[in-house]
Design brief:
eight-stranded parallel beta sheet, Rossmann fold, 15 strands, seven-stranded mixed beta sheet, 10 helices, ornithine cyclodeaminase, domain 1
C-alpha cells in the first residue's frame, strides 16, 4: 500500500487536458451504464457547523475504485484551519485490498469539480465563447475559469460576489493570469455580455434569474451540492433550451431540480426534459441547436469523478 501526501499529489496532478480526458471518460462510462455508483453518504455535525460526505463509484472493468471522505467544517477559518479537507482511499477492484491512500486534503476534489465544469462547457457552450461571468469569488471561482480555458479561448471575466472586496481580490488574482477582469455590483450587469455563466456560491436562495440570461448563454451551476443550497431560480431552468445534470437523483436532492420537488414527494416534476451529462457525452448528443440556444448544467459532484481522478493521480504518481 502506498501513502501519498498533498505536496506530492499537487506536483503530479494539474489542471491539464489529460486530467480532463480522464474525468470525461468517467462521465461517459456513467452515461453508458458501466458504473456502479451508490448514493452519497452524508452526515451533519451541527454543533461544529460541520458535515462529512462519502462518495464512491466503480467503473466496470477498471483496475481500481476510490472511496472519498470529504469533511467540511465551516467555522475552521476562525481558528486558522481550512474549512475543507479529506482523503481518498483507493482499492483494487480485483482483490479489495487497499492500493493507496491519497492524503490530498480536498485538492483532487477541487480539481475534478473544476474539470467537470469545463467538460459541461465543452459539450454545451458555443465553441466561440470568449467571455465568462463568474458569480462568487472563492477557490472554485478561480479553478473553474482555469479549467474552462482548456476547452474555450476565454479572455474576459466578469465577476460578482456578495462582498465587493472579495470580488476585487479575485479580479487581481485573475488579471495576474493574463485575463481582462471586470468587477460588477449586480448579477445582471455581470452576466449581460456573457457567453458562459458559472455560479460558484454557497447560496441558499436563488441568485440567478431568467432575466439575467443573455441569448445563447451556457450556465454551469456548481454551488448547490446539498439540500439547503440553491443558486438558480426555477425560471432559469424553464427558459433553457436544454437542462443537463450530472445525475437526476442527486439534482433532485442536492441540486437545482429540488426546486421542482413538491412537499411530501421525492420525485421532481420539472416541466422540461432532463438530460444527464454522461449520456450527452457517451451518445454525442448535440443539445445546442443554434447559437441562440440557452443551456444549463447542474453539477452536484459524483463518485465516478472521484474514482476517475484518483486512478489518474495514481498513474501520474507512478510515472
Amino acid at each position: 500500500m502506498e501513502l501519498y501526501q498533498r505536496d506530492d499529489i499537487e506536483a503530479a496532478v494539474r489542471l491539464d487536458r489529460e486530467a480532463l480526458a480522464a474525468v470525461e471518460a468517467g462521465f461517459a462510462a456513467l452515461g453508458r451504464g458501466e458504473v456502479v455508483q451508490p448514493p452519497i453518504l452524508s452526515m451533519a455535525i451541527e454543533e461544529a457547523n460541520g458535515e462529512v460526505d462519502v462518495k464512491t463509484a466503480h467503473i466496470r472493468g477498471a483496475e481500481r475504485f476510490a472511496i472519498k471522505v470529504s469533511p467540511g467544517f465551516f467555522d475552521n477559518p476562525k481558528i486558522g484551519l481550512p474549512s475543507l479537507n479529506g482523503l481518498m482511499m483507493v482499492f483494487s477492484a480485483r482483490t479489495g485490498l487497499v492500493d493507496a491512500v491519497l492524503f490530498d486534503e480536498g485538492y483532487l476534489t477541487a480539481l475534478r469539480t473544476a474539470l467537470a465544469g469545463a467538460i459541461a462547457a465543452k459539450h454545451l457552450s458555443r465553441e466561440a465563447s470568449r467571455r465568462v461571468a463568474v458569480l462568487g469569488a472563492g477557490e472554485q471561482a478561480e479553478l473553474q475559469v482555469r479549467a474552462l480555458q482548456l476547452v474555450r479561448d476565454i479572455d474576459t471575466v466578469d465577476v460578482w460576489a456578495r462582498h465587493r472586496e472579495s470580488a476585487e481580490a479575485y479580479a487581481e488574482r485573475m488579471r495576474a493570469q493574463g485575463l481582462s477582469v471586470n468587477v460588477h455590483d449586480s448579477v445582471r450587469d455581470a452576466c449581460a455580455q456573457a457567453d458562459i455563466i458559472i455560479t460558484t456560491t454557497p447560496a441558499r436562495e436563488p441568485i440567478l434569474t431568467a432575466q439575467d440570461l443573455p441569448e445563447g448563454v451556457h450556465v454551469t451551476a456548481m454551488g448547490s451540492d446539498s439540500p439547503e443550497k440553491r443558486e438558480l431560480d426555477e425560471e432559469v431552468m424553464i427558459r433553457a433550451d436544454a437542462f443537463v445534470c450530472d445525475t437526476r437523483a442527486q439534482s433532485r436532492t442536492n441540486g437545482e431540480l429540488k426546486a421542482f420537488v413538491k412537499a411530501g414527494e421525492t420525485e421532481a416534476s420539472a416541466p422540461f426534459k432532463v438530460y444527464e451529462l454522461g449520456q450527452v457525452i457517451a451518445e454525442n448528443q448535440r443539445l445546442r441547436v443554434s447559437d441562440a440556444s440557452i443551456t444549463v448544467c447542474d453539477l452536484t459532484g459524483t463518485g465516478v469523478q472521484d474514482t476517475a481522478i484518483a486512478a489518474f493521480a495514481l498513474q501520474r504518481l507512478a510515472d
